[in-house]
Amino acid sequence: MHRSILAGMIPLLLLLAIGEAKAHAFLDHAEPRVGNTVATAPREVTLWFTQKLEPAFCTITVTDSAGQRIDTGKVRVGGNQMSVALRPGGSGTYHVTWRVLSVDTHTTDGSFSFQVGK
Amino acid sequence: MGANAFQDLETTFKYRVFRDPAHEFVMSVGLSIEWGGTGAKSVGADPFNTYTPTAYFGKGLGDLPNILSWIRPVAITGQVGYAIPGRNFTRTFGIDPDGSDLAIDTEFDPRVLNWGATIQYSMPYLKSAVVDLGLPDFIDHLIPLVEANLQTPVANTLTAGTMTTGTINPGAIWVGNTFQVGIEALVPINRQSGTNVGVIAQLRLFLDDIDPHGIGKPIFGEAVQPASPFGRH
Predict the structure, then answer these.
(1) In this structure, is residue A8 part of a structural domain?
(2) In principle, which of A58, A81, A90, B110 could form an S-S bond with B153, CB 3.0–4.6 Å?
(3) B12 — contact with chain A (CB < 8 Å)?
């Protein structure tokens, strides 16, 4: 009988572990750091991922506390890192939304916020 | 006294029927088959197949408002399955203790409701979506969890009874790029479930990351699949 999810998964992972992997390109860290506060508005946002990225399918959108988009839209991708420049902005909560395609052909997405000047 | 041998081989076919990324909710259905006779009788492996249609769900709390941001890395998963043995009873033959007569022992094989849930806290999600606390890298890959696995006989219970048995399993998973490892304690919920605390460990290989164009290539569908930073079951 199925005694445990863990026990039941062992034969599954050996035989059929396809399509439910939990790795792929996830956000490792960011600058400004996720959920942290910086004194002045940054000139760019940079994200580091756990795998190399496919440049053609990677996007970052940054909005300010008024919900206005303040990124330039020109995303730079190299290896496992991508950046986007920001227009000058004020203080408040900035929201970053990202979507990437890693070289293992899986898409991932996510979002986070950071604070400016509070 | 312990025993070392393989249990029956078990396979699961699982299909995702609903997904709502905005609310981090997913529901799947599956069919698990325990292939009778592939394991050792010495560790209780059944000689007959058991078929278990199962419904699964998972819900992340990432859609909670910012004021509750610290519990956004929590996820809850659950499953309910109905285990149907391939035969209704098992008959064994022996000799009476006094050696005079043939004894026939009939044990009914019950249909069992397999149900359970997990609650887990994803440190990778905390770091990537809520707040980066600058913790050691090892901690940032951990997912502490508590799992409950319960079995309740519900039909053909003449000899098995209807008492629920199972375990509560506190533990943790460490998620890497190409593998995850997990370890849990097994705490019986009653004497019928066991009298000692056990331990179970898991090594899970992400074949589609290790060899995406070989054994990790999808059998069906597109190669591109959205994913989540939760190390969920």
Answers:
(1) no
(2) B110
(3) yes
Residue in the block written with tokens 């227009």: A87
Q: How far is A42 from chain B (nearest CA, A)?
A: 17
- Confidence tier at B232 by pLDDT (50, 70, 90): very low
Give the minimum alpha-carbon distance from B191 to chain A in angstroms, rounded to a whole number. 16
For A83, the domain range is 23-116
What's the total number of domains in chain A? 1
Contact A89, A72 (CB under 8 A): no
B192 touches chain A (CB under 8 A): no
Do A10 and B202 lie within an 8 Å CB cutoff? yes
User: Which of B128, B146, B232, B133 lies closest to B186 in space, CA to CA?
Assistant: B146
Question: Beta strands of chain B (E only): which ranges?
Answer: 9-20, 25-35, 50-60, 74-85, 89-95, 102-108, 111-121, 142-155, 165-175, 179-188, 198-205
In tens digits, chain A (118 residues) has pLDDT values of 444 444 433 333 333 332 333 447 889 999 999 999 999 999 999 999 988 888 888 999 999 999 999 999 999 999 899 999 999 988 999 999 999 987 767 788 899 999 998 6
Would you call A7 an interface residue with chain B, using a CB distance cutoff of 8 Å? yes
CATH assignment of the domain containing A62: 2.60.40.1220
Average pLDDT over residues B122-131: 95
pLDDT, tens digit, 9 for 90 and up, residues B130-175: 999 999 999 999 999 999 999 999 998 888 888 999 999 999 999 9
Q: A72 to chain B, minimum CA–CA distance in Å?
A: 22
